[in-house]
Amino acid sequence: MSSDVPSPTPVVAARDLVKSYPPARRGGTETVVLTGISMTVEPGEFVAIVGPSGSGKSTLLYCLAGLEPPSRGQVLLLGEDPATLLRGRLARLRRSGVGFVFQSFNLIPSLSARENVTLPARLSGRRVRAAEVTAALAAVGLQDRGSHRPGELSGGQQQRVAIARVLAARPRVVFADEPTGALDGATGTAVLGLLTQAAHAGSAVVLVTHDLEAAARADRVIVLRDGAIHGELRTPTAAEIFAAVHGHPAGALR
Ligand code: ADP
User: Fold this and answer.
1) Quick check: 110 pLDDT over 80?
2) Model's pTM, two decimal places?
3) DSSP character for 153?
4) Measured between alpha carbons, how far apart are the two ends of the chain, in Å?
5) What's the CA-to-centroid distance between 141 and ligand 1, angstroms?
6) DSSP conformational letter for 245
7) What domains sit in the chain, N to C, each tagged with a CATH number?
8) Does residue 128 register a pLDDT over 70?
9) What is the dihedral of CA 177, 181, 183, 184, to 10 degrees?
10) For residue range 61-79, what is the model confidence (pLDDT) as tens digits?
11) Ligand 1: nearest atom to the Cα of 62
């Protein structure tokens, strides 16, 4: 009998992932954005993806999340290949196991904060207890804003509603694309703290960010350059991430 402890099934796995876009006009050249990415994200792991602007971070996140089909290679999201799932099954997989936090918040403007938080559960036919929603709003400091619509909330508050929605749904994986991009420093730090909390509560988190302090909260940082994985760091400091992204220590070329 083997004494090896079996490794858990990754929540996200990419194998030789290539993404290219066809030429915008006839005779043009195709844009190759991802050149062959293989990576996994384990249950409960907090992974940040960093790299220079245009290196393919958002495209990689969208492919991993099943929002963009790969051109070649394979993605497994919660053990399923989004490219082969029928649309209805993919939607169910997303609603039941996947949370999203985008820079633009993506709340439904006509629904209150409470209703936005309960939406994923309602869409997947799951009953949510009022106390759970109250607890999720309280966790992000918005217990007294439940009846407000997104338009009546600041950007930071809207992002916190989006995170309360994720916390209430308890997804197995959260994809976050520059979630602090539209927030001031202090609000951004609070939002990152909540994402870290989601990871501690058992959700894996995949975070795309250009904020190296934010990335330094992750268990593992994947550095992208020109659509390929340039390096991987475990619990690095922001300075170590800077050096990996730019190829030299901060301030070295001044
Ligand atoms: P990052 O998030 O690292 O800034 P992106 O993933 O947004 O990078 O984009 C990587 C590259 O892919 C960019 O050069 C961008 O112009 C290109 N790209 C992204 N989406 C498309 C698209 N729909 N069609 C053509 N090129 C695209």
Assistant:
1) yes
2) 0.90
3) S
4) 59
5) 35
6) H
7) 44-66+85-246 (3.40.50.300)
8) yes
9) 140
10) 999 999 999 999 999 999 9
11) 6
Q: How confident is the model at residue 1 (pLDDT cuts 50, 70, 90)?
A: very low
Question: Ligand 1 pocket: which of 33, 63, 67, 225 to mutate (most atoms <8 Å of CB)?
Answer: 33
Q: Measured in angstroms, how far is the CA atom of residue 70 from the centroid of ligand 1?
A: 13
pLDDT-derived band at 254 (thresholds 50, 70, 90) equals very low
Give the pocket of ligand 1 (CB within 6 Å): 21, 31, 33, 51, 53-59
What is the residue-wise DSSP string for 47-108? EEEE-STTSSHHHHHHHHTTSS--SEEEEEETTB-TTTS-HHHHHHHHHHHEEEEETT----
- Read off the pLDDT of residues 211-239 as tens digits, 9 standing for 90 and up: 999 999 999 999 999 999 999 999 999 99
Closest residue by Cα to atom 19, ligand 1, is 59
Q: Which atom of ligand 1 is nearest to the CA of 59?
A: 6
Distance 143 CA to ligand 1 centre (A): 38
Of 104-108, 163-167, 194-198, 206-210, highest mean pLDDT: 206-210
List strands edge to edge, sheet with 31-41: 31-41, 12-21, 72-77
> Ligand 1: which residue has its CA nearest to atom 27?
21
| Residue closest by Cα to atom 15 of ligand 1 | 54
